[in-house]
């Protein structure tokens, strides 16, 4: 019998992203829109993109092979792989099965887990599945890998600047430097804010205003659920007669949010502060509100508060210092890569580890908010108990982001046209240039007449 695991969390981490990106400022000029529409209105700086030479399978292969190679992970030590993605290339065959080619040579075919799908939330469902397996009686003593990744592309129109691309692979196991705490606050509902009903197309259906409101409503409800569970746990743990203080953002050192674009994260942080004021009207934060507005905000219905721009602006202003210290250190991937869908939140975590020195992170607590349209959301926390310098060093994230090629917007438009042209096509060879793939990376080489996909690797020494 294997002893029960403790301190289950992240042991290692790797990110993969395309070699090219465009400047959102350049895209404003290219699209002929007002200056600041994307850079200020969306809070975005750059956006990564691939052409038809890359798909979700190649993204996942690169993230997982990078994880295995950089950390010298024995393929036999992996007992579970869970994948979260909404970038489907097959309605039956999972991305996880493609990843099994990385374990075949070692003879490891005994790996549990499969894909999870619901917009940007699939990765968090995959993460919870992996953690639950390790903490269950089914655990066989081996570690798990959780993969998240997507290619976020939109049809021409207002949503297109909110795209992006990337993938993340994390090694999950016991005695980790980053430990997930057991309380989750979750909110699930049947909505049509974001969905993909047209299977022949990569492009989603997006109701922009509804998407923003759904994101915030789900944040309200998952955060409330988390706070209620945390309070119940605190009461049980408290000494007789002690009254536990309700959980608030003050209880975490860093706050990470699913990041479809930077402005949404700014609003999400402000919304959490508003929820803290509602939960504790006598708090210092509540006392800093002007009296007339304070009364209006506290008495507003949830429906009214979700569309109250004055409320939003007020809490964004009140939260400037908090945002700068708790949220901004986690935004490097979002600023450079754009929306990675399922990988977005975990790109924020990778950014935090890469931006803040390990010595400063040890002992810190981090909140996580995952959201996927349709909709599914969870709020939970993790504790950084150990040294994260090896993870930051092996990811080399900021240096790699800086090496991306910032290309003219016409290349982005042409790449999306290639993807449109060759999406769901059989018996073809992708037309994109191999020069746009990182050296040593997997790429889609061909799709045969039976839709079977073949992948090859760019020579490691190429440039």
Short key terms for the protein model shown above:
463 residues; alpha/beta; Peroxisomal Thiolase, Chain A, domain 1; 9-stranded mixed β-sheet; 38% helix; globular; hydroxymethylglutaryl-CoA synthase activity
Structure description:
Keywords: Transferase. Helix 6 (208-237) packs across helix 7 (262-279) and helix 7 crosses helix 11. With 463 residues, the chain is of the alpha/beta class. The strands form 4 sheets. A 9-stranded mixed beta sheet has the order 5-4-6-7-1-8-13-12-11, sandwiched between helices. It has a 3-stranded mixed beta sheet with strand order 3-2-14. The protein has a two-stranded antiparallel ribbon with strand order 9-10. It has helices at 24-31, 56-70, 95-99, 101-104, 122-135, 208-237, 262-279, 284-287, 291-299, 302-305, 309-318, 320-326, 332-337, 344-355, 358-361, 389-395, 397-402, 409-422, and strands at 9-16, 20-23, 46-48, 78-84, 115-116, 143-152, 164-173, 178-188, 194-195, 205-206, 254-257, 365-372, 376-384, 405-406, 442-447, 453-457. The longest helix is centred in the middle third of the chain and has 30 residues, at 208-237. 46% of the residues are buried.
Helix/strand-derived class?
alpha/beta
Strand content: 15-25%
The number of distinct β-strands equals: 16
Q: How many individual domains?
A: 1
Shape: globular
Q: Kindly report the average pLDDT value.
A: 95
Helix content: 25-40%
What is the CATH H-level superfamily?
A: Thiolase/Chalcone synthase
Biggest sheet: strands side by side, in what order? Answer: 5-4-6-7-1-8-13-12-11
What is the CATH level 1 assignment? Alpha Beta
Q: Report the major sheet.
A: 9 strands, mixed
CATH architectural designation:
3-Layer(aba) Sandwich
CATH fold label: Peroxisomal Thiolase, Chain A, domain 1
Ends: how far apart?
A: 50 Å
Low-confidence stretches: none
Number of helices: 18
What does the radius of gyration come to?
Answer: 22 Å
Quaternary organisation = single chain
Organism: Favolaschia claudopus
Domain Hydroxymethylglutaryl-coenzyme A synthase N-terminal: 4-177
Function: Catalyzes the condensation of acetyl-CoA with acetoacetyl-CoA to form HMG-CoA.
Active site: 86, 120, 258
């Amino acid at each position: 019998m294997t002893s029960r695991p403790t301190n289950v969390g992240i042991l290692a981490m790797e990110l993969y992203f395309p070699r090219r990106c465009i400047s959102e400022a350049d895209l404003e000029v290219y699209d002929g829109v007002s200056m600041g529409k994307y850079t200020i209105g969306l809070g975005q700086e750059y956006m990564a993109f691939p052409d038809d030479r890359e798909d979700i399978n190649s993204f996942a292969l690169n993230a997982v092979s990078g994880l295995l190679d950089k950390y010298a992970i024995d393929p036999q030590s992996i007992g579970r792989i869970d994948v979260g993605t909404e970038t489907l290339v097959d309605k039956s065959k999972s991305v996880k099965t493609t990843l099994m080619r990385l374990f075949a040579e070692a003879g490891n075919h005994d790996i549990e887990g499969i894909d999870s799908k619901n917009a940007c939330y699939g990765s968090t469902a995959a993460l919870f599945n992996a953690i639950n397996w390790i903490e269950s009686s089914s655990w066989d003593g081996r570690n798990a890998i959780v993969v998240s990744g997507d290619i976020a592309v939109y049809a021409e129109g207002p949503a297109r600047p909110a795209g992006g691309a990337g993938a993340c692979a994390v090694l999950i196991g016991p005695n980790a430097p980053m430990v997930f705490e057991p309380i989750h606050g979750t909110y699930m509902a049947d909505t049509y804010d974001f969905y993909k009903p047209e299977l022949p197309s990569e492009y989603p259906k997006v109701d922009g205003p509804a998407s923003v409101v759904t994101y915030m409503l789900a944040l309200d409800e998952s955060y409330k659920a988390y706070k209620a569970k945390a309070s119940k746990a605190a009461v049980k743990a408290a000494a007789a007669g002690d009254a536990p203080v309700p959980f608030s953002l003050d209880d975490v050192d860093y706050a990470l949010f699913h990041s479809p674009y930077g402005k949404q994260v700014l609003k999400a942080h402000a919304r959490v502060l508003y929820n803290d004021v509602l939960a504790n009207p006598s708090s210092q934060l509540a006392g800093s509100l002007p009296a007339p507005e304070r009364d209006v905000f506290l008495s507003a219905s949830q429906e009214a508060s979700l569309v109250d721009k004055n409320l939003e602006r007020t809490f964004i202003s009140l939260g400037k210092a908090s945002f700068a210290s708790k949220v901004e250190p986690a935004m490097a991937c979002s600023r450079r890569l754009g929306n990675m869908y399922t990988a977005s939140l975990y790109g924020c975590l990778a950014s935090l580890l890469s931006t803040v020195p390990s010595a400063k992170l040890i002992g810190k607590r981090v909140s996580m908010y995952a959201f996927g349209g349709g909709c599914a959301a969870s709020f939970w926390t993790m504790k950084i108990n150990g040294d994260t310098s090896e993870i930051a060093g092996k990811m080399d994230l900021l240096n790699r982001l800086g090496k991306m090629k910032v290309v003219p917007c016409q290349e982005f438009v042409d790449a999306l046209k290639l993807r449109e042209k060759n999406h769901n096509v059989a018996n073809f060879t992708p037309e994109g240039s191999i020069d746009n793939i990182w050296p040593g990376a997997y790429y889609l080489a061909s799709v045969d007449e039976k839709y079977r996909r073949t992948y090859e690797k760019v020579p490691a020494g190429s440039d």
